[in-house]
Each structure stands twice: as C-alpha cells, then as structure tokens.
From TrEMBL:
Gene Ontology MF term list: dioxygenase activity; jasmonic acid hydrolase; L-ascorbic acid binding; metal ion binding
Similarity comment: Belongs to the iron/ascorbate-dependent oxidoreductase family.
PROSITE patterns named in the record: FE2OG_OXY
Recorded superkingdom: Eukaryota
GO biological process: defense response; negative regulation of defense response to insect; regulation of defense response to fungus; regulation of jasmonic acid mediated signaling pathway
Keywords: Dioxygenase, Iron, Jasmonic acid signaling pathway, Metal-binding, Oxidoreductase, Plant defense, Vitamin C
Protein name: Fe2OG dioxygenase domain-containing protein
Essential cofactor(s): Fe(2+); L-ascorbate
Cited InterPro entries: DIOX_N (IPR026992), IPNS-like_FE2OG_OXY (IPR044861), IPNS-like_sf (IPR027443), Oxoglu/Fe-dep_dioxygenase_dom (IPR005123), Plant_2OG-oxidoreductases (IPR050295)
Keyword presence, Iron: yes
SUPFAM superfamilies named in the record: Clavaminate synthase-like (SSF51197)
Keyword Iron attributed: yes
Organism: Hevea brasiliensis (Para rubber tree)
Amino acid sequence: MNCSQSWPEPVVRVQSLSESGISQIPLRYVKPPSHRPSVKDNNVSSSCSTQTEVDIPVIDFGNAFSDNQTLRLETLKSISLACRKGGFFQIVNHGVRPQLLKSVREVWREFFNQPLEVKQEYANSPATYEGYGSRLGVEKGATLDWSDYFFLHYMPVMLRNQRKWPQVPASCRELIDEYGREVVRLGGKLMSVFSKNLGLEEDYLLNAFGGEENVGACLRVNFYPKCPQPDLALGLSPHSDPGGFTILQPDENVAGLQVRRGESWVTVKPVPNAFIINIGDQIQVLSNAIYKSVEHRVIVNSDKDRVSLAFFYNPKSDLLIKPAKELVTEEQPALYQAMTYDEYRLYIRTKGPCGKQQVESLKCS
C-alpha cells in the first residue's frame, strides 16, 4: 500500500493546545459553517437541522446463544433489524468482564496524562499510523479534528508488535493483550450472528475476511481534550468506518458519539459496561447493501475530556472484497466492484474522514 512516509506539516498535539489555556481554537480546527455542531440545552445537533430523539437499540447479546429458541430468535431478529436499518446498536452481556473494561479505560487515560515527551516516543507517521497521533489524512492545509489518538495492530499476529505499545503505565501492554483477546473473541461471535442473519453459512463472513488466523483487528484509542469552542470544532469528522465493523467502548461519563439519521444527528447515550457496535463499509459491500454502514461523528466538550476505545474488525488486507454471490440475484445485482481492503483504506488514510463518499464510489455503474 502506497502512503506518505511523513506528515505534510508539523504535528500539533491537541491535548497540549487544550492545556495551554487558549480561549479560541486555531483556525486549522474550525469547521466550515455547514459542518459545525451547535450547542443548545447542553445537547449538540447539526446546525442545519434539529436534534431528534431516536433510540440506539440495546441488546442482550447473550440471548443470541440462549437455549430458549423464542428468546434466541427474537434477539437475532433485533440484531438483524439494527444492521439493516440503523447500522448501530449497543450490546450488554457480551462476555467481556466489566473490571477489564474499567481497567483498560483507566490505563489509557493514564497514558494520555503522561508528560508529552513520554508520549512522543510513540509518535506515528502516515506510513502505518501505528502509535501516538493527532491527525488523519495527509492533505496539506486540511481542516483538522480536535483529538489525539493511539493506534495499534492486534491481528493478524504477524502484525502485532508489542514494542510499539506503550510501556507506561506498567500494566498497559498486558491489559492491551488481554483486552485484544477478549474483543477478538467477541468479534468472531458477532460475525457468526451476522452471517446467519444474512442466510449464509455461519462461518461465511469470517472466511471472507481470511479466516480466524488472518482476520485483521486493530485498536484506536481516542482522546478528546476539552475544547474552548465546541460549537466550532469536531472531535472526529463525519465518516463511515472503512473496515468490517467496529466494537466501541465509549466513555461512560461523557457522551460524544453522534449518528446520522437523515438530516439530523443523534447523540448516543452510552449504557454502562456496554459496547457500541457499528457496521463498516466492508460488511456493507459483502452483504450487497443489506447491512449498511452509517455516517457518524464525534462532538467535543468545553468542560470534560473523553477517552474511547474503537476496536476495528477487518478483512485480511490483500483479499478482494465483493458482494457474496449468495446475495446477488437478477432483482438485486451486485452493487459494488471488488477491491482489496488495502486499496480501500488508502483513501481515508490520504483524505481523512469524508462521509460515505468512498463506499458510494464503489457502486457499479
């Protein structure tokens, strides 16, 4: 995959800007008027539309494997509906221990609270994005998002390089490894459910992603510092996730994720110890648009910072991804051209977040 080896401009850490006491954000972070959130009654909605109250489904994932057939089928139906209509849902009773969720959140907050020189040891480049970063995309002069992050590979094993993971705090690497194992296991169960709900063999999607040993999995830990002008900035610009699907551990104390519903933006209220699941572009392609990725963004806050952990479950990077032949009919022909994930993700790594432009560009004419 061809990608720039260096950033086009000196990298500024957003957390350092926030902690410097500025009252106005630099112009580089000011979004165009049509893209800005607006603050109203402590809720943030699109400046060109009103905020609507639409629930993000909360599903007891354990019931998808219940011996009670009625309960199991009801749960599978709820997941299917969420994947087809909204692209987002929350799961509880997912098998990952609440104490592990808490510990991994706390250790990452500790990392971002380390002195800058400690974090700079892990500074990343756009060649792989691994490490401590503050921007997506390599276009010079681009408007930037109000966030820092740490990105690392977990699967396949040959890409897992623990030397690139933080050594500070001392428990960080051990917790990342344990968390990765548990979330990858959960990802496999979700793939099984998605496949069955599409009427495919239970292991179809996993095999399409390269199989258990070759599936891609990576973690992006987001840090959204306090912002003195949250009505002008975004923590993360509107986009759909380029990979298969995302398992997000949100900050339970500060809402920030917003999902597009028509012309409006809906703020997701996190449920304690829940994961937020969202469909990515690769599953949209494989399902021939039966399942849909949905545009989302992140708003920022003037009073509180936020930490969230996004675990991306992706295809093996050199496999061609195209609509499953079982889901292609005369009435519903293949909607998308085949493309490897390596080729596909180059777009967001070059351009940064761009709504749903990329997956729409794959449509067959």
